[in-house]
Design a protein that fits this description.
Number of domains: 3
Radius of gyration: 25 Å
Shape: globular
CATH superfamily of the largest domain: 2-enoyl-CoA Hydratase, Chain A, domain 1
Number of helices: 13
Helix content: 25-40%
């Protein structure tokens, strides 16, 4: 009988609404708006995000995003209406009523700005809504960018560097890593360089994807960049080449006694590549290891767990805390364990994020490794991708991570993983001071306790 009872109630409500004035009826059971992607993203964030946001926060962010789109010039895919802004309705906290008010404000903005594209305006509003959560794991990818989400690196023609968002809002995007042997490395490009211009075009304020698109081009053609390094501006012309971004790079020091294993991104078969590199280093007589996670933005949680499990078994890496406050341990997978018993240093910087921070936190809290470098990004959480009606993706943070031993939150400004040995790379010198600090630490540890036979 329960389905019949439910159906009867729904019929009564629907009938009653027909008797109300149209504006009142819309407040009780609002019509669906024309912004299907905005609607879907809004409800996912309300119902799933770990921080339990309200309508005022999300829709204010959506309208902020719409305003940013209207102000942008046409050549940056903007509305080219810098003097137009969305009307700001009074948001009361009523979920559906507030959504209708925001959508009406967006409709008026499109009508007022003749050069505005309604689809792009909606994408900007969804982006602004995601950004209003003010944490790095919740973000929106438009349909074009969604195609490349979490895919293993593919060959492309460019300079051989990765680009991340600016450390200061509205500033220039930054070089986060440079591929060994790439045209960028040969031209002297360094991590931390800020990209001001590409072929004479000012790209300050552009997204990393937009900057990368401007830099890429046919194999063998030149591209000229203006970079900001510290207080200096540098102009470099680089010949593009066809490249496949590497994910694991092994480098030996001190006649093989110390192996540096750099992991650039956590996806695909990166755990197997890292395990192979560790096994190779041990076979070749390495007595100390540096796991280099500088500029690693993270990726798959499983890859982070598997890489940490190479160095640690039967242990909890971090605790996962959900929307309901429940704590669940993130544990190692012992099938990846190698059994290296020499000193390990985890090398990080302010651009080490997400899964890279889980590895660093887990190895540190379990006493397996010392952390060298600078405090990490403080961008640690579990995000779930949700496909939107426009074929884009909304990443939603479902859980946050906390240090397993201390319970300290790892996500947020000023948090992350603090180093045992503070070392900052100076962009104005050719040396890598943070790597030098890790090498010094490993040499000290090896001298104090030479490596015995490795465990099977």
């Amino acid at each position: 009988m329960r389905p019949l009872v439910l159906l009867s109630v729904l019929l009564v409500v629907a009938s009653a609404c027909q008797l109300l004035p149209p504006d009142v009826a819309k407040q009780v059971l609002p019509d669906r708006t024309d912004y299907k992607t905005l609607e879907a993203a809004y409800h996912v964030l309300l119902e799933r995000h770990v921080d339990q946001p309200g309508s005022q926060q999300l829709l204010t962010g959506a309208l902020d995003g719409a305003d940013a789109y209207l102000a942008k010039p046409a050549d940056q895919k903007g509305g080219n209406c810098p003097n137009d802004k969305t009307e700001r309705p009074q948001l009361t906290g009523s979920t559906e009523s507030d959504l209708v008010k925001a959508s009406q404000s967006m409709d008026k903005a499109v009508a007022a700005c003749s050069t505005a594209d309604k689809t792009l305006l909606e994408e900007a509003a969804v982006d602004g809504m995601a950004k209003s959560m003010n944490e790095c794991h919740t973000y929106y990818l438009d349909p074009e960018r969604a195609k490349a989400f979490n895919q293993p690196p593919q060959p492309y023609s460019g300079i051989g560097a990765t680009i991340i968002a600016p450390t200061t809002p509205g500033g220039p995007a930054e070089i986060s890593s440079v591929f060994p042997g790439s045209p960028a490395e040969k031209a002297g490009v360094q991590p931390g360089d800020k990209v001001k211009e590409v072929n004479g075009k000012n790209v300050v304020g552009f997204s990393p994807d937009e900057v990368a698109t401007n830099i890429r081009g046919p194999d063998g053609t030149p591209v000229t960049l203006v970079l900001v390094r510290g207080t200096k501006e540098l102009t470099v012309t680089i010949t593009r080449a066809t490249l496949t971004p590497p994910r694991v790079i092994e480098t030996s020091y001190d006649q093989g006694k110390i192996a540096q294993i750099a992991v650039s991104q956590l996806n695909g078969d990166v755990a197997k590549q890292t395990q192979d590199a560790v096994n190779s280093a041990v076979k070749n007589g390495a007595q100390g290891l540096i796991l280099d996670l500088r500029d690693d933005p993270g990726g798959d949680l499983s890859a982070a767990v598997d890489i940490a499990s190479i160095f640690l078994r039967n242990a909890t890496l971090v605790d996962q805390v959900g929307r309901d406050g429940k704590r669940d341990p993130v544990k190692t997978d012992d099938k990846w364990y190698v059994g290296f018993n020499g000193p390990v240093a985890v090398l990080v910087n302010q651009r080490s994020a997400s899964g890279a921070e889980i590895i660093a936190a887990g190895l540190h809290s379990n006493g397996v490794a010392e952390v060298v470098g600078t405090r990490t990004a403080g961008c640690v959480g579990i995000a779930q991708p949700r496909q939107m009606p426009d074929e884009g993706l909304l990443l939603v943070t479902l859980a946050r991570m906390e240090d397993e031993k201390t319970g300290a939150p790892l996500n947020g400004a000023g948090r992350g993983v603090a180093p045992d040995v503070q070392a900052t790379d100076d962009p104005n010198t050719p040396q890598h001071e943070d790597l030098d600090a890790a090498l010094t630490l490993e040499r000290q540890k090896i001298a104090e306790k030479p490596l015995s036979t490795a465990q099977p």
